[in-house]
Design a protein that fits this description.
By secondary structure, the chain is an all-alpha fold. The chain is 37% helix and 0% strand. It is flat, with a radius of gyration of 14 Å.
C-alpha cells in the first residue's frame, strides 16, 4: 500500500522529528521524500509526485487529465 501524509510543522527540524517518530514508533517503513509545499495546491502535489498523476482508473479513482 502506498499513502501520502500531509502535515504541518513549525520548521524543518520539527518535521524531520515527526517523520522519525513515524518510523521508530509507528512502524512505518519506506518513509521518505519529505517536501515542503510552498503553494499548497493539487498542481504542486502532481509536480512533486508525478507517479500519482499517472494513476490508472481503479474503482472510480480518476486519472489526472
Amino acid at each position: 500500500m502506498i499513502g501520502l501524509i500531509l502535515f504541518s510543522a513549525q520548521d524543518r527540524n520539527s518535521a524531520e522529528i515527526f517523520v522519525e517518530e513515524l518510523i521508530d514508533y509507528q512502524g512505518h517503513i519506506n518513509v521518505h521524500n519529505l517536501n515542503e509545499l510552498t503553494e499548497g495546491t493539487v498542481t504542486e502535489l502532481f509536480r512533486l509526485y508525478p507517479r500519482i498523476a499517472n494513476v490508472t482508473d481503479r474503482k472510480g479513482i480518476p486519472r489526472k487529465s
